[in-house]
Amino acid sequence: MLVEDAEPFVPGDSVAIRDVRGGVVRAVSAAVVVEHSPQRLVTWIPLGSPLLLPGDVHGQPVKTERVDRLTEVSWNSWGGPVFVWPQGGWHSVRASWTDAGPDRSLDHWYVNLHTPLRRTSFGFDLEDLILDVIVKPDLRSWSWKDEAEFDEACADGIVEPDLAKIVRDTGTRVAGDAERRSEPFTEAWATWRPDPSWQLPTLPRGCTLL
């Protein structure tokens, strides 16, 4: 349920971030709040966090446009990344590390393109817009990800032309921010560490219902 004028979450809170399209919850990820201000939301997904993804009849995750069921898996990649979500932005930036150990290094920056966050009682909703951007650690080079899938969605009318322009313009602009080393493409996030007292986030009851 969407809510307005709710109190901000505080560091360490567990939230659910849902991908919703056409009245269907397509995915849900549990995350820990690092920062929540009028300017931005920052979240962390520790290794082992629960994640709901489209699944087949055997409970195995599948990549599909039609979502009939969700299956629970655990986040097990990129060293437990941190995400920076600008308020009102059409994107988020993920710092992705090689692993979760003390000697980890930044593998890449991942720019996810999506609709602006909408506050719910237990977290936030968005609609993933398929196209993404991968920025290398040197911040000098970048590339589109899932471009063929995005073009197909545009051709099928899933992504309308005006929306497609917003998506591509946003991706290009954020890639330019990386080249200029603007926030959040900074050393502070590249070397960020979570508060050791924070607990593994959980998925709230009813998070698959609209």
Quick description:
The chain has 210 residues and is of the alpha+beta class. The protein contains 3 helices and 12 strands; from the N terminus they run ββββββββββββααα. 32% of the residues are buried.
Q: Give the beta-strand count.
A: 12
Overall helicity: 10-25%
Q: What profile does the largest beta sheet have?
A: 12 strands, mixed
> What ranges have pLDDT less than 50 throughout 5 or more consecutive residues?
none
Please report which band the strand proportion falls in: under 5%, 5-15%, 15-25%, 25-35%, 35-45% or over 45%. Answer: 35-45%
Helix and strand run: EEEEEEEEEEEEHHH
The coarse silhouette is globular
Number of helices: 3
- Over all CA atoms, what is the radius of gyration? 17 Å
What is the average of the pLDDT values?
92
Notes on the protein architecture:
By secondary structure, the protein is an alpha+beta fold. Helix content is 15%, strand content 36%. It has three helices and twelve strands; from the N terminus they run E-E-E-E-E-E-E-E-E-E-E-E-H-H-H. Strands 1, 2, 3, 4, 5, 6, 7, 8, 9, 10, 11 and 12 form a twelve-stranded mixed beta sheet that branches. A hairpin with a 6-residue loop joins strand 11 (128-135) and strand 12. The model has no long low-confidence stretch (mean pLDDT 92).
Topology:
Elements lengths: L13 E8 L2 E13 L3 E5 L5 E5 L15 E5 L7 E5 L4 E7 L8 E9 L3 E2 L3 E4 L1 E8 L6 E4 L1 H9 L5 H19 L7 H4 L20
Parallel strand pairs: 1-10
Antiparallel strand pairs: 1-2, 2-3, 2-4, 3-6, 4-5, 6-7, 7-8, 8-11, 9-10, 11-12
